[in-house]
């Protein structure tokens, strides 16, 4: 019988190769960074989990970073991974940071995409409101849902990304996301990563047009990561892995290969 507290996940590559766990951000799922995993899978064993309350993973009332880091460690244990690399975007980057601090001896190196360890103000409140206010009983197609979301979210790309979380059922549609838990735990999701130290190599990749990782976060980074470097992808925003995938993937592959 499957362990219901184990993260849903997909693997690419051969399990005898070095392992990389690749963690998506808020409102995402295991497919978000799959283009990176495909490129890596020739030489690495790539594990793509759905974070708790996302995708097909279990629902939980808690979304603290220590709990979500424990999910990653438990997943690694289930796959018999003694050591592994980490890649995480946004919320997934914070989960990866927390995992580095919680189990530093197991992490060979880590890459954090457009996120710092610091606390953030409520940057996703409008999205949570829009998703919560969507009248799902009136949704007969994804087009219906898109039309409702367009009233408050003008960017089509963001709406398409969010609507990947709609699941068709016999009775209509439902969210795969645990919206209730995301809303109730949003303060925890926006919170800082735990204090602690990881001395292994880490790379922060910043979107040049994004304000998620700036000079004001330097102290928070230095307090936790003594061996950190930064690369900037000019012309990219917070969704740098989707906006500039070739550059993003190359930076990740080059860093891990060092």
Automatic annotation (TrEMBL):
Transmembrane segments: none
UniProt keyword annotation of Hydrolase present: yes
Pfam families assigned to the protein according to its UniProt record, in alphabetical order: Abhydrolase_1
Source superkingdom: Bacteria
Record keywords: Hydrolase
Residue intervals of the AB hydrolase-1 domain: 18-118, 183-245
Gene3D superfamilies referenced in this protein's UniProt entry, alphabetically: alpha/beta hydrolase
Alphabetized GO MF terms: hydrolase activity
Alphabetical list of InterPro entries matching this protein: AB_hydrolase_1, AB_hydrolase_fold, Epox_hydrolase-like
Record protein name field: Alpha/beta superfamily hydrolase
Organism: Idiomarina loihiensis (strain ATCC BAA-735 / DSM 15497 / L2-TR)
